[in-house]
Design goal:
It is a single chain. By secondary structure, the protein is an alpha+beta fold. The protein has a single domain (about 1-95), classed as TT1725-like (Alpha-Beta Plaits). The protein is built from 2 helices and 4 strands. It has a 4-stranded antiparallel beta sheet with strand order 2-3-1-4. A hairpin with a 6-residue loop joins strand 2 and strand 3. It is elongated.
């Protein structure tokens, strides 16, 4: 089993409220799950109306498959015009 975790740090510059920000975040999380088979959740900055840190993970039976899923996630996130991506970091998770 291979698990690749991505931390996606971004801003929603036009957001004026937590409700507006959460609408954008929920849309991204839902699309990642439906389109890319990637689990994601907001993990930091929940009370900031413009900043978001999403944690996302992909699980698969091969390194190539998991990397492909996270590559697809990155392309999708970068394509969202209403957000400003600050950083995306990847790390492999290993079971003991």
């Amino acid at each position: 089993m291979y698990v690749l975790v991505a931390e996606i740090d971004f801003r929603v510059p036009q957001s004026q409220s937590l409700k507006e920000k959460r609408s954008v975040v929920q849309s991204i999380v839902r699309n990642l799950d439906q389109m890319h088979g990637v689990g994601a959740a907001e993990v930091k900055f929940q009370e900031d109306h413009q900043r978001v840190l999403l944690g996302a993970s992909a699980v698969g039976d091969s390194v190539g498959h998991v990397e492909s899923l996270i590559d697809s996630l990155e392309r999708y996130v970068w394509s969202r015009t209403e957000i400003e991506v600050l950083e995306i970091q990847r790390s492999w998770w290993e079971a003991d």
